[in-house]
Queue: 2 jobs
Job 1
Amino acid sequence: MALSSLIYKNKYTKWHNLIIKRALSRALKKGVGVEEHHILPRSLGGDNSIKNKVNLYAREHFIIHLLLVKMLKKKKHIDSMTYALFNMKANNEYYTRNNNSKMYHYFKERFQKLQSKRMTKYMSKKENRKNISEKRKAWFQIKENRDHLSKVFTGRKRPEMNKQTLLLKGDNRTKKQKQASLEHSNKMKGRIPWNKGLTSTSGIINARNIS
């Protein structure tokens, strides 16, 4: 499968082809500020042959992936390239990518929608929910993890909040309880999750392992 059969002939394709053509004409070795790129991305059917590889400056590499999202015809291919783009680290050992906030917001929003859809589909299957439940139980069996939770929650107070208030929902709450619940919700907004940095290593939920 050739990339030309998957894309529109638009200005983004023109810019993409110019960058690739220029890169193929120079002898650029992978190293500081240089990254390897698959001309036909592997997620779109490309192979790992030398003919399908080209070395690009890190900035060019990032731009190429931006252009691919704008060039492709099918939604599944666009989604695939959105994942690839967002999985490109903001910086690496050779180079720091400076992305403007508007661009980041656009692709972050697309990425979150894809993740939400993917997780909804994954969690609709009973066996997947059971698998996650078992992983959570295994995580809590590790003393180091329990100690971490204890440290995080020790000393945390919830003014005007109690267990009864947290368990009640909707019209079952008094006016005072509803107000307390709202104040607690506002207070918790923006707070770093207790499991930040632990989910990928503990295996509670790791989206990359979802097929």
Job 2
Amino acid sequence: MQQDGSSLSRYASRLRQCASEEQHKKPPARVEAVAAQTSGYTTELVNSPERFVELSADWDALASQQRDALMLHGWYRAAMEAQELTTGDLAIVILRKADRLVAAAPLQRAKAGLFERLVPVDAFAGEPDRLLFEDEVALQQLGAACASLGKPILIRRLDLPQTATNLFAKSLRSRAFLKMQQRHSSNVLHLPSRLDELEASVSASRRRTLRRKYKAARQSYGQLDAQLLVPEPAAVDQHLARFAAIEHASWKGQQGTSLLSDPRMRRFVSSLAHEFAASGKLAMTFLTLGGRDAAGKLMLSVGGCWNEIKIGYDEQFASCSPGIILTHETMRHAIAQGISTYRFLGLAEDWQAHWPTRNGEDRLLASYPFTQAGIAAGVLDGWRAMRRIVTR
């Protein structure tokens, strides 16, 4: 403990020294709401939901290149609505080149003690955080624009390849102390084009396990049925209510994290569902055992990829693993629909190893500029880290 305390003290001292040195330098140019030219790029700080709505078409033109629903404009707009963000809450940095949107960092202001820092707009959702960029040069310019804001930045799950992360971090590091570390992993499955290839891709032992689960479900409950829905907007609320009842009957209901227990997440998922259903990009699957709902999934579809956004199952059916059965049935539906990629929700878990998934890693990135706010953020994060060590 003495060593940890000394390290924290040295770190705070170093930040104060850097802040003092920065005071004698020419202050960095800020990213303003009014555009400013930098190396052929036009930068803008979007700080109102209304202005963000105006960016819809340009945003999706850039995001759609990645085949990731969690980059689309509707995803972030739903996150803003769920948190009831207003003008001044947002700090979305965008870059244009020749009037074309080429990069964006979807950030918002968040209070941390007595200071303010920037975090992803969708940080509360617990999913990996994204940056949008056309190429590496645009990503570097985006990092420089974020650094020029002079505020601490905390991205807990930055989903970028190592090379791209290093490029973005390099721009931030020019004006801040930077902390990076590997954090979590998530799974993605590249689906074959035929059902028999899906079965063949599962190991022999896993196939036997799946057969036992199917057999146990049919022996205990009789009929087993998996249904795929692509609901019309008018039917979304009805199907969401069905899913919410299933999810609430699991441990999520007991721990207060289900949609019925969490108003913010309920608003978020409802907004997402209506947004994506309007364009036919919402998919839902349900598993019924003996005519009763046992499990459900919500997915967003874009560019041949399904992204899980919510999963749930009723605890009374836990003995036959309804979540695993529904996942396998969902993959069968996905192949029949011509879907080529399936992204699992949240963190990688052991049960997902039933299928030949690929593991993706995300990283924590925290920047502490050489300012009073940066010093305060660094000290606060250091203290929290020591408390976690002591608690363990």
